[in-house]
Amino acid sequence: MITTYNALISLKNRVANAWKQIDVQLKRRHDLIPNLVNTVKGAMEFERGTMEAVIAARAKAVGAQGVRATAQAEGELSQALGRLFALMENYPDLKATGNVAQLQEELTSTENRIGFARQLYNDTATEYNTKQMQFPTNLVAGLAKATPAELWEITDGGERAVPNVDLTMRSPGT
Amino acid sequence: MSDADLFAQQEANRRRSAWLVGGFVLFFAWVGFGGDLGLYLWTADAPPEAYHHVVPFLGILTTAFAAGLCWYAWRTGPRRVLWSAGAAELVEAVTPEQRQLVNVVEEMAIAGGMPRPKIWLVPDQDLNAFATGHRAADAHIAVTQGLVDRLSRDELQGVVAHELAHIRNEDVRLMTLLAGMLGAMALVSDGLGRYLRMGGRVGGGGGSRGGGKGKGNPLAVVILVAWVFTLLLAPVVSRMLAMAVNRKREFLADATGAQLTRNPRALADALEKLDLAGSPTRSITRGSAHLCIVDPAERRLSDREGFIGDIFASHPPIRQRIARLRMMAFEAAEPAAPLPR
Predict the structure, then answer these.
(1) Phi-psi bin for B278: left (phi > 0), alpha (psi -120 to 50), beta?
(2) Residue B268 · residue B322 · CB < 8 Å
(3) Is residue B124 in some structural domain?
(4) Is there a domain that residue B10 lies in?
(5) A37 vs chain B: nearest CA distance in angstroms?
(6) Residue B49 CB partners (closer than 8 Å, separation 6+)
């Protein structure tokens, strides 16, 4: 009884911690974007609309509260950034300057970090939610003030699915 | 991997580490005390003024030696493995490739929900990587320069994920201990081999002298034969056992790595490149071969499927690993299994 309760509490804290991780990475992204926009502004004069969309999406994402709203705003920001990256491919000179290449690597990494932090959050939250409903943990769920954690829904397509993991020693085909 | 699985893995590895240390000390104790017993029985019939082997100082010595070695392997293992590979810590990323490596490691640490390990670079043009350390909090990951130069970002991510999986499952503790002990074992059996060859002549002379009395004790002969047999076989048997355990860990780390990146195809591609590179990683010695993502020796042994490969290779056949990862990628691409990540 006590161990079930404690396990649930530690899981609850891990969900909160995983959410913090996402927050840290989102903050990193928000800080990097003005940098990028300022660097490419001069060279990409004709793509003003795309850049303004990125800035607007960023402003909206910074202000977002709660899992659902944040997920929504950040998804839009991801799409705007993706369009900007795609357009940057048209400016080979731009990529040749070290600063832009470095910034782009940082942003790519940040996108990945957000993705992985979200993956960890969703995995942990799912485990937490499942635990709450399972017997005998469901008996102490109320005591631990456990409520189902909201998952970060994926808004864009092209996300990778979970691979089916085979841990047996069999080789495929036999 | 859910928590329960992870804890089960870590627990199993802790148990294996304990077995390893226990078996190692026990082996040395047998070498020492067995030798003592043989000597005791040998000298028991000797005339009273001759030497009688009563105090088992050989056994005490070897047991203390083995315990000391375990302690030494535990304390200095990670440092020694890194040192023997000539790795240099990447403290501040200078080139874009190094920056990318640091980023990739940090990304995977986030995916695994674990602290970022220290990053080391091995100045070697071949493609390889390994991880070492005691626990996630003080783990190290080392990659060769060739790997950083020649893999794409996604492939690098796959390899790093594989290594982080080793750290997360606490494989590194077991494998680093094993590295220290295999090194010591090789040293001892080399030394003993030389001694036995040399001592064979000396013993032969002594045998003919004391032969009249010594022959009368069959128990001494049986024990001596068993003793010599274990001395000769133990290194081989222990190596086989260790390699069998290790091959399983490699498959598991591939799977866990794929779970971290959600991209088994990238690791499969990377393994293919590593396989094609094919040349031996000279910086990495035989004793720490099992730590690496692919066998750093000529890749012939791990390529061979079947009996010999099953017994002696430190790594599973690379084609089998690639095939499994491709299966995972294929299954993930099927519309039947789209889970939210």
Answers:
(1) left
(2) yes
(3) no
(4) yes
(5) 20
(6) none
Domain that residue B44 falls in = 3-84+174-232
Distance from CA of B320 to the nearest CA of A (A): 7
Token pair of B13, please? 């590895």
Number of domains in chain B: 1
CB contact under 8 A, B337 and A164: yes
Give CB contacts under 8 A, 24+ apart, made by B312-319: B312/B239, B312/B240, B312/B243, B313/B243, B313/B247, B314/B243, B314/B246, B314/B247, B314/B289, B314/B290, B315/B246, B315/B247, B315/B250, B315/B290, B316/B247, B316/B250, B316/B251, B318/B271, B318/B274, B318/B275, B318/B294, B319/B275
Q: How many residues does chain A have?
A: 174
Please give the CATH architecture assigned to the domain spanning A2-141.
Up-down Bundle (1.20)
Q: Is residue B316 part of a domain?
A: no
Q: ∠ CA(B273), CA(B278), CA(B283), 5° rounding?
A: 105
Residue A52: the pLDDT is: 83
User: Above 60 in pLDDT, residue A118?
Assistant: yes
**For residue A114, which of A13, A14, A17, A24 has the smallest C-alpha distance?**
A24
Residue A167 with chain B: CB contacts under 8 Å: 251-252, 255
Q: Which of B49, B106, B163, B298 is the catalytic position? A: B163
Is B97 assigned a catalytic role? Answer: no
The span from the CA of B65 to the CA of B264, in Å, is: 45
Structure tokens that stand for A172 in this block: 């495929």
Question: In this structure, is residue B16 part of a structural domain?
Answer: yes
- Residue A112: name the closest of B261, B341, B116, B328 by CA: B261
Question: Considering only CA atoms, which of B120, B144, B150, B125 is closest in space to residue B269?
Answer: B150
pTM of the model: 0.76
Q: Which of B13 and B183 is assigned the larger pLDDT?
A: B13
Does position B200 have pLDDT exceeding 70, yes or no? no
Q: Name the token pair of B111.
A: 């995916």
Mean pLDDT of A75-99: 79
pLDDT band at B322 (very low <50, low <70, confident <90, very high): confident
Q: Find out whether A115 and A88 touch, Cβ atoms under 8 Å.
A: no
